[in-house]
Design goal:
Blueprint (H helix, E strand, L loop, with lengths): L7 E5 L5 H12 L4 E3 L1 H4 L6 H11 L2 E6 L1 H5 L1 H13 L7 E5 L4 H7 L1 H4 L4 E2 L3 H23 L1 H22 L3 H22 L9 E4 L7 E8 L5 E9 L10 E12 L3 E17 L5 E4 L5 E2 L1 H20 L7 E4 L1
Parallel strand pairs: 1-2, 1-3, 3-4, 4-5
Antiparallel strand pairs: 6-7, 7-8, 8-9, 9-10, 10-11, 10-13, 11-12
Helix pairs in contact: 1-8, 3-5, 10-11
C-alpha cells in the first residue's frame, strides 16, 4: 500500500545487478512509493540524460545499490553525483544499499558513503525494503520539523484544534470549573510571591470576601500625593456555564481618594487582558493580546513584573505616566 503522500524514489544501480537483486527490489518498492526505475520509467525517443536529470530534480530519496559493478561504471557515478548536489546539511536523501561488497570496498570507493548507515542485500528484499521505509519515515519527520511551510501548517492545525476544544469545553460547567480552579492557583502565586516583606518593602494584599474570590489586589508604596500604587487582577464576564466572553483583567494604577477616604477613581498606569484557553491536555492556559499562549505561572509573573517595575519608579521618584479614570 503506497503512502498517503506520493514519495518519489530514484533507484540508482548498475544494469548488471538487475537480475539477481535490483529488479525485485524495484518491484517491491513500487508497491509503497513512486519509483523511478529505468526498466519502466524511461520514455523511448527522449534523451536519456535529460530524463535522468528531470527525475533527479523531482526525487525525494535516492536508493543507491552499491556493488563492484556500480563502482566500475561511470553512469551510476554520475547519478550519485547528481544526488549529492541535491543534499544539504538538513536534507539527506541518499539511502545506500550494499550488494555483495564489504565495508573496506565501500570505503575504498567513497569514505562518505562508507560512513552512512546502509542496508545490505544479504537481508533479502523484504528486509531491505523495511530498512528503506524506516529511513524514509525518519526523513519525512525531519522534513516536517524543518520545513517552514509545514511548520506553519502544523501550527495552524493545532490552533484550529484548540479553538474547537475551547468552543466546546468553554460552554460547559466543567470548563468554567477548570478556569475557577486555575484562577485560585494564580491568586495563590500572587500571595506566595508578595505576602512576605522584602527588605523595607511590604505589600498589603486584599481579596474579595466571597468564595471563590473574583479579584485580588496588592497595595504598594504611595506617590507624593498619598495615592497608593495598586496591582489588581480579576476575572470578568464569567458565568456558570460559559467562558465565551470571559477574560482575566490585570491593572496597575494609583488609587485616588479624598478625605475622609472617599473613593474618586484611579489613575491607570497599565492594563492588560488574558483570555482563558485549553491546551491539548485540557489544562487551562491564557492568551494575551499578541495571541501567545502562556501558562498560569507566567501570567501571574508577567503581571507582578509590571507592578514591581512601577514600584521601583515610585521608590526612585521617577515620573510615571497615567490616564485618569473617574469613579
Amino acid at each position: 500500500m503506497k503512502q498517503q503522500r506520493s514519495i518519489r524514489i530514484f533507484l540508482s544501480h548498475a544494469s548488471e545487478d538487475k537480475d539477481d537483486f535490483v529488479r525485485a527490489l524495484a518491484e517491491a518498492l513500487n508497491e509503497k512509493f513512486d519509483v523511478w526505475y529505468d526498466d519502466y520509467s524511461v520514455v523511448v525517443g527522449r534523451s536519456l540524460l535529460r530524463q535522468i536529470s528531470e527525475a533527479l530534480q523531482l526525487t525525494d530519496y535516492g536508493v543507491v545499490v552499491l556493488s563492484q559493478n556500480f563502482f566500475a561504471k561511470k553512469w551510476p557515478q554520475d547519478e550519485l553525483d547528481g544526488l549529492y548536489t541535491l543534499e544539504d546539511a538538513e536534507r539527506k536523501l541518499i539511502i545506500p544499499i550494499w550488494h555483495k561488497v564489504t565495508a573496506a570496498e565501500v570505503k575504498a570507493y567513497s569514505a562518505i558513503l562508507a560512513s552512512r548507515a546502509a542496508s545490505n542485500s544479504q537481508k533479502g528484499i523484504e528486509g531491505v525494503v523495511e530498512d528503506i521505509v524506516r529511513s524514509v519515515t525518519y526523513g519525512e519527520r525531519v522534513r516536517e520539523v524543518s520545513n517552514p511551510l509545514l511548520q506553519k501548517l502544523a501550527r495552524a492545525g493545532t490552533t484550529a484544534t484548540l479553538n474547537k476544544k475551547f468552543d466546546e469545553l468553554g460552554r460547559t460547567a466543567e470548563g468554567v470549573k477548570l478556569v475557577w480552579n486555575e484562577l485560585s492557583t494564580l491568586f495563590q502565586i500572587i500571595r506566595d510571591r508578595l505576602s512576605q516583606p522584602v527588605g523595607g518593602l511590604h505589600f498589603r494584599i486584599v481579596e474579595q470576601d466571597v468564595q471563590p474570590p473574583y479579584w485580588i489586589m496588592v497595595y504598594g508604596p504611595s506617590r507624593s500625593d498619598g495615592c497608593p500604587l495598586v496591582l489588581r487582577l480579576g476575572i470578568r464576564k464569567i458565568t456558570s456555564n460559559s467562558l465565551t466572553e470571559t477574560f482575566l483583567e490585570y491593572m496597575v494604577y494609583f488609587e485616588r481618594e479624598e478625605w475622609p477616604n472617599q473613593y474618586k477613581g484611579y489613575d491607570l498606569v497599565h492594563r492588560g487582558e488574558l483570555k482563558p484557553y485549553f491546551d491539548q491536555d485540557n489544562q487551562v492556559a491564557w492568551r494575551n493580546a499578541a495571541l501567545d499562549i502562556i501558562d498560569t505561572k507566567r501570567a501571574a509573573e508577567s503581571a507582578m513584573s509590571e507592578f514591581i517595575d512601577r514600584v521601583q519608579d515610585v521608590l526612585d521618584k521617577r515620573p510615571i505616566t497615567w490616564q485618569r479614570v473617574d469613579a
